[in-house]
Structure prediction request, 107 residues.
Amino acid sequence: MTDTYSINVGSDGTARLTGELTFETVARLHREMEQSLSKTGPIEQVDLSGVPLADSAGLALMLEWQARQRKRGRELSIVNAPDNLMHLAKLSEAVELLNLSGRSTQE
Prediction:
């Protein structure tokens, strides 16, 4: 596992994450997202296409971000989730709560 990651919040309201969403990375990633939001404004979508792996801490981070958006009266769409995050979300019955979708298998 690695703690290398990056976050890029675009003007289109999409936060693009790369790297692993694990216990080792989520605290720093959460702080960076909050700092990014103060500069870019609200996000509407989180794109996880650059995330190869997410553990339960990654799932908890997505739940936190979704809850914060809802408190602000907004909905967050989380797309291109890696298979293991989709599996954890299904086990937790959190797919709909997160507004989560996995990666397309179509090329």
Q: What stands out?
A: The radius of gyration is 13 Å. The chain has a mean pLDDT of 87. Residues 56-71 form the longest helix (16 residues). The chain has four helices and five strands.
